[in-house]
Amino acid sequence: MPLLVVGSVAIDNVQTPVERRDNVLGGSATHFSIAASFFTGVRLVGVVGDDWPEQHTRLLNGRGIDTSGLQIVPGGKTFTWTGRYEPNMNDRETLDVQLNVFGEFDPKLPESYRQAKYVFLANGVPAVQSKVLEQVPGRRLVVADTMDLWINIMRDDLDALLKNLDGLVLNDSEAKLLTGTENLVAAGRAVQRMGPKFVVIKKGEHGAMFFGEHETYVMPAYPTDRVVDPTGAGDTFAGGMMGYLTEQDSFDAETLKTAMAYGIVAASFNVEGFGTERMQQISREDIEKRMSEYRKMLSF
Amino acid sequence: MPLLVVGSVAIDNVQTPVERRDNVLGGSATHFSIAASFFTGVRLVGVVGDDWPEQHTRLLNGRGIDTSGLQIVPGGKTFTWTGRYEPNMNDRETLDVQLNVFGEFDPKLPESYRQAKYVFLANGVPAVQSKVLEQVPGRRLVVADTMDLWINIMRDDLDALLKNLDGLVLNDSEAKLLTGTENLVAAGRAVQRMGPKFVVIKKGEHGAMFFGEHETYVMPAYPTDRVVDPTGAGDTFAGGMMGYLTEQDSFDAETLKTAMAYGIVAASFNVEGFGTERMQQISREDIEKRMSEYRKMLSF
Question: Residues in domain Carbohydrate kinase PfkB (chains A, B) (predicted)?
Answer without folding.
Answer: 17-277
